[in-house]
Amino acid sequence: MKRVALILCTTLLAVNAYALSLSDLSQQDTATAMKEALTQGAELAVSELGKPGGFGNNPDVRIELPGKLGSAARTLKMMGMGSQITALENSMNQAAEAAVPQAETILVNAISTMSLTDAKSILTGGNDSATQYLERSSREQIRTLFFPVVKQATDQVGVAQQYNAFASQAAGFGVVDSSATSVENYVTEKALDGLFEMIAQQEASIRDNPAAAASSLARKVFGAL
């Protein structure tokens, strides 16, 4: 009975903590909680994507050939003729995995400079409002870091040169977008897309389940939504 009573008391305390309204929270608590939760999401995203298979084994972010090249590639794979295409796609995903760890410092810096006003509006925004803020404030800087890492990785793979030549011709016929005419540009942008997609997933998870937040303050603040 004592054990049951203890569990009930603990549950009631948790419910009371989450029963707070936003008006009960100080702006400083809101900002601190938002920064903690967003840092948690960013670090998890970088950790997941920056390991071997982080992109290649994740269907949400795996990088494939763009546009109609991708459609043709999938057909060739089904016909058993896709060994070179698979090698190219694997190299693109490995390049993205190598680049992602470069983003962590910029992401953390962008989070630390978030204003009190930004934090309050982000908290009451959509499921990915914090991610959108982070993308606006850091994507350009991260792109600058990603590009040379991606280029170094793809330059080591001979099929990357074939991609560049083929994609440049294909762009002239409207088969692929002009932004995808070089493998390093294409992989850099897809790596950025994948990074912010993963951060958005982490943010949505914390909003849906405040108990998943790492800190007690973040759990309290998100529980008040």
Tell me what the structure shows:
This protein is mostly helical. It has helices at residues 2-18, 27-49, 67-78, 83-99, 104-112, 116-123, 129-155, 158-172, 183-208, 216-223. Mean pLDDT is 78; it is low at 1-20.
Biggest sheet record? none
User: Could you state the order of secondary-structure elements as H and E?
Assistant: HHHHHHHHHH
The helix count comes to 10
Radius of gyration: 22 Å
Give unreliable regions as ranges: 1-20
**Integer average pLDDT:** 78
Percentage of helical residues? over 70%
What percent of residues are in strands?
under 5%
* Strand elements, count: 0
**How would the global form be characterised?**
elongated
Structural class of the helix and strand makeup?
mainly alpha
Distance between the termini: 34 Å
What's a concise summary of this model?
This protein is mainly α and 225 residues long. It is built from ten helices and no strands.
Give the helix/strand layout.
Blueprint lengths: L1 H17 L8 H23 L17 H12 L4 H17 L4 H9 L3 H8 L5 H27 L2 H15 L10 H26 L7 H8 L2
Helix pairs in contact: 2-5, 2-6, 2-9, 2-10, 4-7, 4-9, 5-7, 7-9
